Amino acid sequence: MVKNISAPLVRTARLLDLVPFLNSHQGISIKDLAAEFEVSQSQITADLTTLWMCGLPGYTPLELMDLEFESGFVTIRNAETLSKPRTISFDEALALLLGLDILKTTISPDRQDLIEIAESLAMRISSKVGVPRTIQLEPNVKPEVMTVVKQAISRKIKLTIKYHSLYSDLVKERIISPNEIFEKDGHLYLQAFCFTADAGRTFRLDRIVDLTILAEDATAATSATSLAQISFSVHVHTVSRDLAERFNVSIDVDNPLIKSQSYSGQWIVRSVFAGGADCELLQPQGIRQEVLAKAQALLDRYKMG
After folding, report:
1. What's the Cα-to-Cα distance from 217 to each of 80, 158, 198, rounded to whole Å?
2. Taking Cα atoms as reference points, which of 245, 230, 228, 229 lies closest to residue 279?
3. Beta bridge partners of 235
4. Rounded to an integer, what is the distance from CA 271 to the centroid of its chain?
5. How many CA atoms lie within 13 A of 298 on its CB side?
6. Which of 53, 58, 116, 298 is 20–30 Å from 244 (CA)?
7. Closest CA to 9 of 104, 129, 132, 133
8. Rounded to whole angstroms, how far apart are CA atoms 75 and 33?
């Protein structure tokens, strides 16, 4: 049965196959050519029209392919550069196979025909170049890690994680309260409050080696206070990149007021102190008084006895 396939991926492969085939089958009829490539005559005519506009840089009649098919029979000349199937390197074939795997993940399961076409092309590449078909793209983040983290975020519960730090090259255990997942520079990150460090932390999800949900009954007594976020506001006197990154916000020069939340009052105090004269904590008053007391204590050390 003749198939009318016009998917871009399949058509590109067919165009590359057409030139060497026509070189060795000069004068073939359009009807037979369509049957050979298992497409309709209108599709093969469209393919020939596309090839008619292909050639070497310069793209004048001297460099373009010379095809004749108006009579119903096809001849081709000036196609030496594509007279043989293009050879590709191992690295190129590997890139194509990985690309096809990515493409397959974006195709709806209902389009099994497209999935089969992509798989068929992958098998042909693997066979021709000798690249193992078992090479596939695997997600960086373990599915079980993503599932548990999403559950913890939605249920607002704590996790115990084993995290591989590249800086120390050690796997450390931490207790965290996940807040949100975000993507940056091609990696997925988890923003959370780390009870081990008593501060907000960001973790790359693919570096979480293992994780478990803490028993809810064991944390019920502390969850109301431990997970409660503290709202705070900071007036920015001097806009700087350091402040924007420290508080993870964009600072409006015309309205230099930061309003945010944190799980830790100590983190707020340390962040304000790190900002020095560039910022001033306005709220909450309790933490503002703590900042004032610590600042006064530091100044008192410089007083002469």
Report:
1. 76, 11, 22
2. 245
3. 257, 280
4. 31
5. 8
6. 298
7. 104
8. 11
CATH at residue 177? 2.30.30
Looking at per-residue confidence, does 202 or 183 come out higher?
202
Q: Where does the pLDDT of residue 220 fall: very low under 50, low under 70, confident under 90, or very high at 90 and above?
A: very low
Q: Residue 34 is which amino acid? A: A
Give 70-120 as a DSSP string. TTSEEEEES-GGGSSPPP--HHHHHHHHHHHHHHHHHS-TT-HHHHHHHHH
* Residue 69 and residue 27 share a domain: yes
Closest C-alpha to 7, from 127, 137, 116: 116
Residues 153 and 212 reside in one and the same domain: yes
- Give the tokens for residue 237: 């006197």
Q: Which residue has the tokens 């091609």?
A: 186
3-state secondary structure of 189: strand
Which of the pair, 155 or 229, is modelled with greater confidence? 155
- DSSP tag of 194: E
The answer to whether residue 59 sits within a structural domain is: yes
Domain interval for residue 167: 143-226
Domains in the chain: how many in total?
A: 4
Contact indicator for 236, 258 with CB cutoff of 8 Å: yes
The answer to whether residue 161 scores a pLDDT higher than 90 is: yes
The tokens describing 96, both together, are 């194509």
Same domain? For 154 and 193 the reply is: yes
What pLDDT digit, counting tens, does each position of 246-295 carry?
Answer: 777 777 777 888 888 876 777 788 888 888 888 898 988 888 888 888 88
